[in-house]
TrEMBL record:
The keyword Oxidoreductase does not apply. It comes from the Bacteria. This is G8 domain-containing protein. InterPro entries: Fibrocystin, PbH1, Pectin_lyas_fold, Pectin_lyase_fold/virulence. Keywords: Signal. Residues 51-71 have a biased composition (Pro residues). It comes from Kitasatospora saccharophila. Residues 26-91 are annotated as: Disordered.
Length: 693
């Protein structure tokens, strides 16, 4: 066996792999205790999980995290054979770095270990690729921070997904990817690019230029763009009609493409002051971490030192393995436990202050962004595109009786979940772009969920079962998802608020609200042209009752009803729809459709306007049980009536509600309609380098 040299070591693979793996775990404790169980479930509520992490509650430090260290370009050069004992590392080498090394030439190795005393920094003024057949483990420093004219790539070209074992805190030699462990420091610091902005005009098939809502920063010829679908849900492929195009030239806010668009991307006027063009996502970055299309790697962080991950493109990550099931005669694949796109694993409070900015995770076989039991992480201007499983997620509960472990103070700012898929799609039960899980102090602002696939209960944003988190949720958009915009399925203990939300052209409901009992306030929001309707109400109130107030619900001719009640599993407090405008429905503004095997409706519709060209304001399904109470007071009127089973009679003023009416008292005096005035941004938030710029 070769002697390990202080300046760095190269050994042949074979026995060297085992030796490298042994050294990787030697003489350094884990960053924190590893509770029993694995790194999380492959698909959360769909497939179970390992043991949940311990409950949060440790003190939150008041001091900000230390500033990032400077990138030291003063180490020895990788290309200097003398630093390696006379022989440069090669494709069969297990490389161990214990000192400061600057990568100044393309290289290929068998594996790489950067010890706590070592660092590997890519030269900023060169385009460089480091390829590794096996794991890259960072216990010291790894920095990819090129200038704006060059590109840095860490590639895993020989991944065999069949060998992956999955698991928790420790490095697994067969699970090829980038591991940041111990007190390792990872810096991915690419040149800033505007992550996404919207088209300023309608786009047509054959167009080869795109006029953007704002001039983008950092876009270059050769950048790859994804143009999101915006067509109505009665259009073929309404949730999948993306265009992937390449930039030829950028002139201010006008982008010229190397080829024409194939699909139409209309601008959509929702009302409430909001008109949306297609999002144009820039998928290119000059820092890249990637596997291959046929061999997906992963990024796994357990280091107690906060990482700096900015303006990087992570591609072909998230390995999958054949499961026990089959579909149409072929094995159904499942994600490998804990091997995701960008995975912060059980860091607890040591991750506080971490910022992930302008990062793209694309073409990935599992979850894209995973802050699992890791608190205080901000994701700003990030994009998940064409990824499998819930895109923004952390480990779900082991069953429906066990609460999810929390991640506190997670912030999604101007992030996009685009084309989230599942295999096979008919089994994509409750697939979502953003899983708004357990914890406190978290927020989602100015985010977009588009092109999420899946089946029953799938959505752009989900408040998942047994995973109650208290989120600030505002100015978020869901459109052209195959199913719902928002899906709530909580028996909630806390009060929740959704405001300045917009949903258009989804294949299901703008909001599907369940499960049994909870208290939500939905305010100042617009639901437009969703195929099933604006709102489905499963849940009755828990303590205060759920309120939908000041909404514009325009079915745009796509659905029979603007709002419909469905099965109420448990009796609860009243749900109120107030000060809203309902229009564009084919049959009725509000349909009361509680089922006989559940509890009856307890709903108040107060001070609302109705503008359907067809149909009536209300309709009581003759198959529904007699309601506990339905209160109705149209906008501009003082009289409140209650609705009951009509026995074939007519309603107030001859309107065919299929209901009998009687005078009633409303809980509040008449109020004016309060239509929303949306204030959305048309571009991702501005981002910068770790060191400024």
């Amino acid at each position: 066996m070769l002697t390990w040299l202080a300046v760095g070591t190269v050994t042949a693979l074979g026995g060297g792999v085992v030796l490298r793996q042994s050294l990787a775990g030697a003489d350094e404790p884990a960053a924190r205790p590893a509770p029993g169980g694995g790194s999380g479930s492959p698909a959360g509520h769909r497939h179970g999980t390992g043991a949940p992490p311990p409950a949060s509650g440790s003190p939150r430090p008041s001091a900000p995290p230390p500033p990032p260290p400077p990138v030291d370009q003063g180490g020895r050069k990788w290309s200097d054979a003398g630093g390696w004992g006379g022989r440069l590392p090669g494709p069969g080498s297990a490389v161990r770095i214990t000192d400061r090394v600057v990568l100044d030439a393309d290289a290929k190795v068998g594996s790489l270990l950067v010890e706590p005393t070592g660092s590997l920094v890519f030269a900023a003024d060169r385009s460089l690729t480091l390829a590794s057949s096996g794991n890259v483990e960072v216990r010291g420093t790894l920095a990819l921070a090129p200038d704006g004219a060059h590109t840095h790539v860490l590639r895993f070209p020989e991944v065999d997904e069949r060998r992956f074992a999955g698991g928790g805190m420790t490095v697994v030699d067969t699970d090829t990817g980038l591991w940041v462990t111990g007190q390792g420091y990872l810096r991915l610091d690419g040149a800033p690019r505007t992550a996404w902005t919207r088209a300023a005009t309608a786009l047509k098939p054959g167009d080869s230029t795109i006029k953007l809502a704002a001039a983008p920063t950092g876009w270059q010829p050769g950048d790859e763009l994804a143009v999101t679908p915006t067509a109505p849900p009665d259009t073929d492929d309404f949730s999948t009609s993306y265009d992937l195009v390449t930039v030829e030239r950028v002139d201010g806010a006008t982008v010229t493409l190397t080829g024409p668009l194939k699909n139409a991307h209309p601008r959509v006027a929702l009302g409430g002051g909001a008109t949306f063009g297609a999002e144009v996502l820039n998928l290119s970055r000059n820092v890249r971490i990637e596997g291959t299309e046929n061999g997906r790697a992963h990024v796994h962080l357990t280091s107690s030192r906060p990482a700096d991950v900015r303006h990087a493109a992570l591609r072909w990550l998230g390995p999958r393995a054949n499961g026990k099931d089959s579909w149409n005669g072929k094995p159904v694949t499942e994600p490998v436990l804990g091997r995701y796109g960008l995975h912060f694993h059980m860091l607890l409070d040591t991750s506080r202050g971490t910022v992930v900015e302008g990062v793209v995770v694309r073409d990935t076989g599992s979850h894209a962004f995973v802050p699992h039991a890791s608190h205080g992480i901000t994701f700003r201007g990030c994009i998940s595109h064409d990824t499998w499983e819930d895109a923004y997620w952390w480990d779900g509960p082991i069953d429906t009786r066990t609460p999810q472990g929390p991640s506190d103070d997670i912030a999604y700012e101007g992030c996009v979940a685009s084309r989230t898929v599942f295999e096979p799609n008919p089994r994509g039960y409750r697939l979502t772009g953003f899983s708004l899980g357990a914890g406190t102090g978290s927020s989602a602002r100015d985010c977009v969920a588009v092109g999420v696939q899946g089946a029953t209960g799938a959505s752009g944003y989900e408040w998942p079962e047994t995973s109650e988190g208290v989120w600030t949720f505002e100015r978020c958009l869901a459109h052209n998802n195959l199913e719902n915009g928002v899906f709530v399925w909580l028996n909630a203990e806390h009060h929740h608020t959704v405001t300045q939300y917009a949903a258009y052209h989804n294949g299901g409901w703008g909001i599907e609200h369940g499960a049994y009992l909870n208290d939500f306030d939905y305010t100042a929001s617009v639901l437009y042209g969703n195929a099933a309707g604006g709102i489905a109400v499963h849940a009755l109130g828990r303590d205060r009752g759920t309120v939908f107030d000041g909404l514009l619900i325009d079915a745009a001719g796509q659905s029979d009803y603007a709002v419909a009640t469905l099965k109420h599993q448990l009796a609860g407090e009243r749900v109120t729809l107030s000060r809203s405008r309902l229009t564009g429905y084919r049959k009725a503004g509000v349909a009361f459709r509680a089922t006989g095997d559940g509890e009856p409706d307890d709903i108040a519709v107060l001070d609302c306007e109705f503008g359907g060209a067809k149909g009536s304001e209300l309709w009581l399904d003759p198959e529904a049980p007699d309601p506990k109470q339905i209160l109705f007071r149209p906008a501009g009127q003082a009289q409140t009536v209650s609705l009951g089973k009509a026995g074939g009679g007519q309603g107030l003023a001859g309107t065919p509600w299929n209901a009998a009416t009687a005078p009633a008292e409303a809980p509040v005096p008449p109020r004016a309609v309060a239509l929303p005035a949306l204030a959305f941004t048309d571009s991702a938030p501005k981002t910068g380098r770790v060191t400024g710029g």
